[in-house]
Amino acid sequence: MKYFLLLSITLLSINISSSQEQNNKKIRLYLDCQSYCDKEFIKREIPFVDYVNDRFQSNVFILSNSQVTGSGGREYKLQFTGREIFAGVNDTLTFVRQATATDDEERQQMVQAIKLGLVRYLAKTEQGKKVQITVEQEEQESETEAEESVEDPWNLWVFNARINGYLNGDKNYFSNNFSTGFTASRISEDLKTTTSISYGVNRNRYGTGEDAIKFSNENYRASNTTVWSLNSHWSAGGYLEFIRSDFSNYEASLTLTPAIEYNFFPYSESNNSYVGLMYKAGPSYFEYVEETIYFETEELRFQQNLSLAVSLNKKWGQISGSAAFGHYFHDFSKNKLTFSGYADLRLYKGLSFNISGYYALQRDQLNIVKGDISNEDLLTRRRQLDSNYSFFTSFGLRYRFGSIFNNVVNPRFDGGGGIMFF
After folding, report:
1. Any residues with CB less than 8 A from the CB of 66 and at least 6 apart, and which?
2. Residue 104 CB-density burial (10 A; 0-12 exposed, 13-18 middle, 19+ buried)
3. In terms of domain of life, where is this protein from (predicted)?
């Protein structure tokens, strides 16, 4: 009997050793990109790992998310989490895509960061014996050149200008749109300010001949947002906005709202966790194109708004949402309550659930034009109509099963059979 037990223990130890050796053979990687990344390119450039479709089957999990930088680029944060034989081996790497960088330069940076992050895990596998590390030596710069390289002639200011247009139609319908805009922003650790100006016009025709319905909408918008960093949790600033819009019945709308915000997490952790409470209040002046349902052609009103926004990016998925309530001081019944949210949750292995939506109880539409609503107004939505609520929602379930490995890249026919837009 004791020989049988000894033999069983020996066979079991051999099996465990063989299993561990097999587990040590290759990294099983699950890559979760909360912001877009070119996974096919990554698979081509990093072929020495097994890419799995289920994070529960991985022994290395990478969560990638990003946020906009002051220059208009993006800061990417890659969080490496080890599982099974790599349990406790965790790391975080960051890199910045400059605003002028191409998509190819961005994906090259992503590949380089992933390779660097995987070195610690490769060192614990049989593949670690095959790893060779080389470092490119840069030419030394003189002190004068180094000083010149850090000087910024733009003093952190970033400018963007755009022009857009499109045509769409057939015999019974025609629509064309033109828009242009300009944005100037300066973002530092202590101050963020963004100013934008835009113009747009939309022309539409429904039907043909004398019975055709034709209308056009123009809109002008100018705004400024300025915020000062008070400390790692508090910020203060305000919004200034001017609007002229045919659709919204504004000949002129001018709003000034000072604001203060408290973030329950330090702003440095906003990539993964953000819970912000904001209060803003201020005056709004309205001059209307046509008389409103409240018999006003112009008015000056004061309003306030309180909002709570939440955003979490974790291994189990992503959740973000906000709730806000605001009202005018001259009539508290003129108020608005809004809810919005998005969630993408992994329930179990290949099963995930996603939902997004928005709902508003709105009783603050001071700008609605007086008069009857025609069928043309309802069908074409050429002007804003009175409604005490609005909403949208989408949801879905996804279940992936079958092979957990997806190392193969095959791009054949990816670009065929469709319409190409330039």
Report:
1. 34, 35, 74, 75, 76, 77, 271
2. exposed
3. Bacteria
Q: Are strands 191-206 and 317-328 parallel, antiparallel or unpaired?
A: unpaired
> Which pair of tokens denotes residue 364?
């603050």
Distance CA(162)–CA(160), nearest Å, equals: 7
SS3 211: helix
Fold for domain 26-129? Rossmann fold (3.40.50)
**Which of these, 225, 149, 227, lies nearest to 194 by C-alpha position?**
225
Taking only the tens place, the pLDDT of each residue in 154-201 is 888 888 899 999 999 998 899 999 999 999 998 888 899 999 999 999
**If you search the block for the tokens 């877009």, which residue do you land on?**
36
Cβ contact 315:81 at 8 Å: yes
- E strand or H helix that includes residue 42: helix 39-45
Provide CB contacts within 8 A for 56, sequence distance 6+. 348, 349
**Token pair listed for 221:** 């918008």
- DSSP3 helix / strand / coil % (the chain, rounded to 5): 20, 50, 30
* Cα–Cα distance measured from residue 79 to residue 195, given in angstroms and rounded to the nearest whole number: 34
Q: Where are the domains of the chain?
A: 26-129, 230-399
- Tokens for 23, please give them: 């587990």
* CA dihedral sign of residues 375, 380, 381, 387: positive
